[in-house]
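Troubleshooting log. The previous structure file for this entry was overwritten by mistake, so regenerating from the original sequence record. Sequence copied from the archived sheet and checked twice against the printout by T.R.
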Amino acid sequence: RAGAFSQDARGRWYLNVCVKVDVPKSAGTGSVGIDLGLKTAATCSDGEALASGLYRKHEGALGIAQRARKKGRVRAIHAKIANTRKDAMHKFSTGLVERNAAIFVGNVQAGAMVKTRMAKSTLDAGWSMLKTMLEYKSHQAGIVFEEVNEAYTTQTCSSCGVIPASSPKGRTGLGMRRWTCCECGAEHHRDVNAAKNIAARGHARLAGGIPVL
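Regenerated output below.
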């Protein structure tokens, strides 16, 4: 089949060839919602999380290499960051596909975020790459993958379904990692709660039917 050459950040060349492989269907029976964020790249409704901050971790060494004009070292650090991120995302996405029959992800748009002061953190989180991996792996495994509207999923209590006065809101609520619903008394982890709401919306969308555009 067709192939192409590519070069990585370290200047190494690769021959990429398309091949046909048999992909086993997923035997998973569960379902999971995923909230994409900056503190953690992804948080699941069951509490599993994918860490973020790889670029920040190596930013100091990268700055030293750039000021010293060591181009080879700079390329090596960038390659290490990219490869480590991709490896973690492959393991994370493969595990989710193996365990579940339906995966729902919030429709956060990275394009809008990279135009803000949170651009570095957004790019470091790699949301687009993760969603691409989840989508093609889900299709190969024969399971459901859907993006759902994530609006107000952080503020809504996943236990009683209301938006209480005690939930995190606006800029003042960005630092709230845990909160208690003043309506029903349920205690929430900010990102896990959002992921649970995303999962619930995904199930509702499947139950009501997905319109063909």
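Residues 71-99 form the longest helix (29 residues). Archived copy saved in two places this time.
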